[in-house]
Structures are given as structure tokens and as C-alpha cells.
Amino acid sequence: MKVIKHSFDGVIVGAGGAGLRAAIEAAPHMKLAVITKLYPTRSHTGAAQGGMSAALANVEEDNWNWHAFDTVKGSDYLADQPAVDILCKEAIDAVIELEHWGLPFSRLDNGKIAQRRFGGHTVKEGTSPAFRACYAADRTGHMILQTLYQKCVSMGVTFFDEFQVLDIKIEDGICQGVVAYELATGDIHIFETRAVTFATGGFGKIFKVSSNAHSLTGDGPGILYQKGIPLEDMEFYQFHPTGIYRLGILLSEAARGEGGILRNKDGERFMERYAPSIKDLAPRDMVSRAIATEISAGNGAGPDSDYVYLDLTHLGAETIKKKLPDITDFVRTYVKIEPIEEPIPVQPTAHYAMGGIPTDVNSRVLSDEKGTVLPGVYAAGEAACVSVHGANRLGTNSLLDIVVFGKRAGQSMVDYVTQTKPNQLSDNASNDLTKKITNLIEKEHTNEFSVAKIRKDLQDSMEENAKIFRTKETLEKQTEILEELRERYENVTIYDKGKVHNSELVEAIELDYLLDMSEATVSSALARNESRGAHSRQDYPDRDDTNFMKHSFAFKNENSANLKYRDVELGKYEPMERKY
Amino acid sequence: MDVSIKILRYDPESDRKGHWENYIVDAEPEERILDLLHKIKWFEDGSLSFRKSCAHGVCGSDAMVINGENMLACQVLVKEVGNSLKIEPIRGLPVVKDLIVDMEPFFDSYKKVMPYLINEKEPGDRERLQSPEDRDRFEDTTKCILCAACTTSCPVFWTAESYVGPAAIVNAHRFVFDSRDEGSKQRLEILKDVNGAFRCRTAFNCTSACPRGIQVTKAIEDIKRETLLNN
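^ Those are the sequences you sent over. The predicted structure of the assembly is below.
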């Protein structure tokens, strides 16, 4: 295997919104490389639809403190309030900056950036839904990704496209570099560098029905977890209420922000019963639970009574065409339904990891629950857990998170690089990865231990036992299943033995991360004997502030995780009952 | 139902040229062609290579030629194309392996047209204003996902790889008609070149191929007209 060595001051892993925003901040100050397993414009930021909230007050009176209140309440009081203040305050400049870089936001008649309603966002701490989400039709994420990439092109940022980082080198507790696999050649590349940002996105592929891309396999969190770095709040995984039935393709909350209504098989607007004041615009955890409850009560539609309807028929063709063009096209393409005329079959879809690599507000990675900083390593975006989303993220806040904390990751890299000297990494830094790859190539292929079969069993079982509603029983069952899957994975084999674009080899390594993410999720969920935000334990239906106002830190053990905890950082908002 | 799929395979490590291989896949009419390729890769032949990511037509990874037409494999359902399929890599870019082509020349052309906002004026601390009408002028071309379906369907591009191609012109259009941009002169100068917009012979293949429904040929015509007006 050919090994090629590079030397950089800083490396960013992942080229979605968080990675690109970090790159824009860091590139002028150092020799920087951005490494992505896709092409940057293929990143899943591009699939985000509805908007990016900021209290611009373009439509009505607004205030970033109200945005912070909503975010904290939406998080079921698990978010760290000082971090939420940063998110909501810096959101305003972040949106303006993107506009200055060319982002084509939709506009109001007076030429200002248009804003729409979104779930859980209110004015005056819960009075009524707020017009806060800045949007570009229903392709806001696409526009953010394009704009950030365009900015990087104009700056001449160095990219390594279709290179997959598969190892990090940490010596004496300090980052020394990363090791990557070049997809087109099978060559190994050692990147000697003292500052690394992980912005690899989420890991929705642990579930069967998901809005996530095939590429979202938890690579960044997985790489660090295997080195003994904990993962924070992994029991909190968000299920978006409106995925296209069976396919899981996302239909933005903007559909309900523009007036769309959820209905059960009888046509009843059931959210009136679950969230009397803001109804269909309740936060995602509540709406997803409401749908699941309707379905188990026999109120689901269809031959298997397993979906509900998203009704847009009263919005009119013009609104749909102007404001929701993409999602209605998805419906026409994949379900062959005309959303102007017929309601759309939807079900909750695995969407977003609130948990991930623990960081402080400067995107510096923490190596334990006490807050010890791991020098030279940073994380931002869905891969990271600051925590600004707590137990449940509000819609639009992820696009905010990537730019606010992506920028902070870039700034932290600059600070660190200017204070330290270039390091050296020995040529044998690639040995661990080379060995892993050689093992996979040399082992004879058997169908029994194929990547796809193990992955399918993982996704099916996580869907069954660890999705919206959980109990001790289902989680214990899933723990046993994960042990079996881990044993099978030890014998995993691949059919493709080639060097050029061997994606089967890469999928085999990604499956290791998916198993890690699942183990951390299930262990953390089993230990949290309460229901909070997206984590809903039917055997512990209430929130327990006495024992669980704390973040979990999962450390990798053999087939599960060891758990430690850190108290939530409170602020001006006292935990109260979460009603909408 | 059984779907018969012929795929043009090529492995640079063992083949001197491409060859067809046949597969029979059990599929539902509602499945995506990408799902069928996965069934082959995951359960039959792990060496089959193709790009993919989002699986719902927004990332632009999986453009390929399906029954003679450029499409995204994740955006086409079995019931739309029938039970006998022929799948090849997109044309005009070097094939690396199976359905994977070298995208570098494509992205090089994209970068040539300065695809970013150019405006030296200090924008102040609030957003620049833009009327909804001005915003609408370039709405269509903001949708581009750089999948290369348009460029690799263009007969001019097939014979002259120096032609920047429809996708690059679409991305120039997105800025030339943005009221906030001041770089049109430079961009139009580039597109006036022998390898620029005037190579287009209005075959409309690009417009048919675009999975995002962009009126690509119209965008190219807009650029041609703007170039002439600018002279």
C-alpha cells in the first residue's frame, strides 16, 4: 500500500456547513487542508430545507433572548444556557454574514430577508409562533452549502475531495495528525498537523427509516470514541415528525410553518389535543410522539394503519410553488401524489443527533466529564455536542449551530496554531490503518459475514427497540442484539479486493462506527431513568430534575459504554413544565 | 417483479476496456434505481462501484445514463423506466471505475467562471436589500447541485472537452443576474471566449437532463444575450 505524507498546520475533516465555515475562518492564517469523503457540495447540509433562525425582527418584533428561551425550553432544559445565549446572539451576525457572501435568501417586499414560522419558536416566551426562520424557499441548506463552498473557492482553500479520514494520532494527550484513505487509488495519506476539526455530521444510518444520507455514519465521533474520548448525550436522538412514508425523506417543518396540518385517518387535527396553544408547530419530539401515539391507538391511516397525513391542500398552489417547491416535488417524485390536491402520508424519520463529541463553547473537544480540553482537537456541527440542543433541538437551530460553532472552531484552530510550533509525525503513523485494511482485503469473503447483512440487522433492530419510545426491556434486548452484531462484525468480510473506489471496504469500516454509535446510544438510554425531550422511556414517563439535570458522557467499553455525568449549566431560565 | 439490469462495468485494475454485465434484481415498482444498484452491490457483487449520498435528488452524486438518458439514479423509480434497464456512466468525462467518472475537469470548468459573489463595497452591518423581483431573476439557476447531468448530455461537450459546458454557464448566470453582484464584466469576458457560451448549439439536451428542472438552455441564451449587450 502506497503511503504519502503531507504537512499542514490545520486539517478540517468534513466539508458540510460546519467544516466549510471553519475553513473560511482558519484558511487566511495557516496552511490548511479540508478533507472530505464526498465532494463538498454533496454534503448533507445541502438537504436542509426550512430555514435558519435569527432574531432579525424583519417581520415582527423579536429579540434574541426570546430565541434563547425557546431553545432552552425546546431542549427540555438540558441545553447549557451560556452556550444557548451565544448561539442565539451570534445568529444575527451569522445570517447577515451569509447574506454578504451572497446567500440568496427569499425577500420581503421591502427587500429585507424573509422570515417564516417554525416549530417551537415563539415571541415573548411562548405567546404566539414567531416569524424567525430566515429562508431561501425550502432549500435553505442547499444555499448555505453552496454559498460557503463558493466563498472557499474564492479564497483558494485547499481541498482533498473523496479522501476519507479513518484515524487520528494523539501522542501524550496532544493531537499529531490524521490518517486518510484516498478513495480513487486506495493510497494511504498521513496528514501531519497539530490542529484538527471534526465536522463529519451525524449518524442517522443507525436507524432503518432516516432522513440522513448514506454517508452519515458517525465517522468523526467514531474515530475519537475508539481513542477513549467520550460521547455526550447520546440517548437524545431526534425523530422528525414528517418523513415521507417508508422512505424517510424529509418534508420540512416549514410546511407546517406555512400552515400545513397533521391529520389522522379520520381527518382529525390531532395536535390540538397534544399542544393546544401552538398545535402543529409544537417541537419535534412532541409531534413525533403524538404521531406514534395516534398510530398505536389505531388512528393511523393506510392498510397497515401506520402513517398520518400532512395536509397542505388548503395552502393554495401559489404558496406551495413559491415557498415549498422542493418538498412538494419530492412528494410528486417518490409518492406520485399532487400535494396541492391530496394529503401526504408521513411518519417520523430518524433525523438528528443532539449528542456527539463533547466540546466547550469554543468548539474545543473535551476528553472527560470534568471538562479537560484535548489540545489541538475541535468539533462542530451535528458531530459535536456543545450542548445547545439539549434533549431536543428546535427546527432551524442546526443551520445556526454549524455556522456559529464552525466559525468558533476555525478561530480556536487559529489561536492554537499561532501559539504552537509545527509537529512531526513518524512514517509508521499509518500502521494501524494499513493493518485494518490489509485484514479486510486478505480475509476470504463469505456471504454470512457481509457488511450489508450486519448493517441491515443493526438498522432493523435499532428501529424496533431504540426509536421514539423506549423501555428497560427493549433497551436490554437491544444491548444483547448489539453484542451479537459486534461478534459478527469481528468476522466481517468484503468481496471487493481492489484498490480503486473500493466503497465496500469503506462501508465495512463505517459499520464499525455505526455499531459504536448504537452502543453508546443504547447504553446512555438505558441508564437514563426518566423521559426528557427526545428520550422517552415508557417505564419512566416523567422528567426527573432531581436526578437527571445532567449530561451523560459515554466512554467506550467492549460492547457497551461506561457512563459518567456532568451537571447542566443553568442560567436565567428555571426549569419548568414543558407545555405548548 | 424481476428487473433485468445491464451495467457497463470497467475495473482499471483488471479490464482493458468496459464490458456489459447482466443482473436480475427482485424489485418493487416504487423502488429507486439507486435501491436496485444497492441490492446488487450489497447482496450480489460488492465490487460494483457508483457514487451516492443523499438518495433523494439533492446532493448530485449519482448522475448516470439510464436507458440512454442522463438521470439521478435516486430520483427515478422502477415503474417509470420499466423492467429492462441499461446503465452506463455519464459521457464525456474519463471513466475511473464502473459508473464513477473523473469529476475534476467538470469542477475545473465550474471554478473558471468565478462562481462567487463579487462586490467590493462595504455592505454595512445589516443585509443588503434586494427586491423579490430582483431575487426572482436568478431563482432558477440557484437550484444547481453540480451533478454534471447537463454538461455530460451536451453533444458539444462530448467532442470538445475544452468547452466550459452548461453547468458552468448556469453557475455564472446565478451571479450575472444577481443585483448584488458586480463581477459580471469579468465573467462575461470569460464566457465570450471560444470555449464559452457561444459554443452552445441549443440542442436542449441539458434542459431535458437537469434533475432540478432548471431551464439550462434558456440560462445559456440569457448569458449570450448579456454578452452581446455588454460589448
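Chain B has two domains: 2-101, 104-230. Chain B has a mean pLDDT of 97.

Shout if you want it in another format.
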